[in-house]
Amino acid sequence: MQPNPAKAATPGHADSASAWTRLRRVLPVAVLVLGFAAFFAFDLEYYLTFHHLRMHRAQIMAFVAEHGMMAPITFMLIYVVVVALSVPVGAFMSVTSGFLFGVAMGATYNVIAATIGAALVFLIAKTAFGDPLRARAGPFLKRMESGFRQNALSYLLVLRFVPLFPFFIVNLVPAFLGVRVTIFVLGTFIGIMPASVVYALAGAGLGAVFDAGSEFSAKGIFTPEMVVALIGLALLSLVPVFYRKMKRND
Fold first, then answer.
1. Which of 41, 98, 153, 161 suits a disulfide with 106, CB 3.0-4.6 Å?
2. pTM (two decimals)
């Protein structure tokens, strides 16, 4: 006699499966929170400062020269971790890439590492909070989600081109609004390219700043002309949104 599958699924098994599902959602979030706390508890932010870079410039440059591809791989792994932990050292990492690897390769490593780190945050947030939130969402959130998803790539490009909001916020909000992983990765990859090039350009001249004994601040990188250019790119990325609205009004 074959067992009845419906009877085989006992309440105990159902509770166990539900607990495992909750654990899978919460565990990655807990790892990120603990990692964020540990980063500051062990004063790791000191090692990711321009002061430390200046003090250990010779050793760091020697490591880059002696270890070939291991140097950029190490750099990108560190960058992925700090982005995933949402530690506010992204500008330092982006500038340092240009200092260590030059403009072209530095910007390339920036884009790859930042995109991977952002995708990790997005996937964790989407799994832990996004799906449960949308399941309980009211009409307002559903309308907002629908509008964002229809123009997700355009909106993401705007948010990436013009850094109006912290990088980690832009990693989280699309996860809550049901954006597809492929759209998020593509929008992030393309959207951070201009700023990555700007940071790498600044980093390429960092050696001269150190040699002159001057202080460097990432805050002064984006000149008014550069900001205008980025806003122009953002407006250009909104053209498809305006076009769709005009077509609906015809």
1. 98
2. 0.83
How do residues 79-95 score in pLDDT, each as one tens digit?
999 999 999 999 999 99
Range picked from 91-105, 120-134, 201-215 for highest mean pLDDT: 91-105
Report residue 249 as tokens: 């009004």
User: What's the first-to-final CA gap in the chain, in angstroms?
Assistant: 66
Query: What pLDDT is recorded for position 2?
Result: 54
Q: How far is CA 157 from CA 13, 82, 174, 214, 237, in A?
A: 45, 22, 12, 35, 6
Q: Comparing C-alpha atoms, which of 135, 240, 142 is closest to residue 187?
A: 240
Task: Tell me what pLDDT residue 192 has.
Answer: 95
Q: Which of 99, 88, 107, 95 is nearest to 44 (CA)?
A: 88
d(CA 127, CA 115): 18
* 14-15-16-22 Cα dihedral, nearest 10 degrees: 110
Residues 6+ apart with CB under 8 A from 38: 44
Find the DSSP H helices in the chain.
5-8, 11-41, 50-55, 57-66, 70-84, 90-101, 103-125, 131-135, 139-150, 152-161, 167-176, 181-191, 193-204, 206-211, 224-237, 239-249
What percent of the chain has a predicted confidence (pLDDT) above 70? 77
- Which long-range CB contacts under 8 A does 64-70 form with residues at least 24 apart? 64/100, 64/101
Nearest to 194 by CA among 241, 157, 220: 157
Residue 29, CB half-sphere, CA atoms under 13 Å: how many?
13
- Name the residue among 241, 69, 246, 68 with its Cα closest to residue 148: 241
